[in-house]
Amino acid sequence: MVNGDEDEIRNLIEQWAAAVHAGDLDAVLAHHSDDIVMFDVPPPFEGVRGIDAYRAAWPPFFAWQRQGASFAIDSLDVTAGGDVAFAHALLRCGTPRELAERPDLRLRLTVGLRKRDGRWVVTHEHHSFPDTSVDAAPPGNGAGKA
């Protein structure tokens, strides 16, 4: 039933992303464990731990998003085992101006899930943007070698 699990998780994440875009906090919190750990783009650097801290992290994002920002999945890959799963996605996340200035910019999302009492719950989220402050070649591509 792994494929069915992958479809279920894909649907769960797509509903979560739609809830984030809509600013629907209750729907954002649905399917998250009480002991959720989120590593987000803004501080705190040690992450957000627990459902109450996770809940408190969203209102500032929703306020920013009301400026007309997008939050939409471009790609989503899911891998599910019997009781543990993970997914990774790329999302268009930015204001119209930000996305026009950097059309290739994507938010990177990684989600860890566990199956508890027969249903999938999110136990970990990691959100990040690439560091564009330095225009350096990635390691291992031969740059800088004579």
UniProtKB/TrEMBL annotation:
**What domain of life is recorded for the organism?**
Bacteria
The record's InterPro entries line, in alphabetical order, gives: NTF2-like_dom_sf, SnoaL-like, Steroid_delta5-4_isomerase
Q: Please list the residue ranges annotated as the SnoaL-like domain.
A: 9-131
Against Pfam families, the record matches this protein to: SnoaL_3
Q: What is this protein called?
A: SnoaL-like domain-containing protein
Native species: Streptomyces wuyuanensis
Question: Taxonomic classification, please?
Answer: Bacteria, Bacillati, Actinomycetota, Actinomycetes, Kitasatosporales
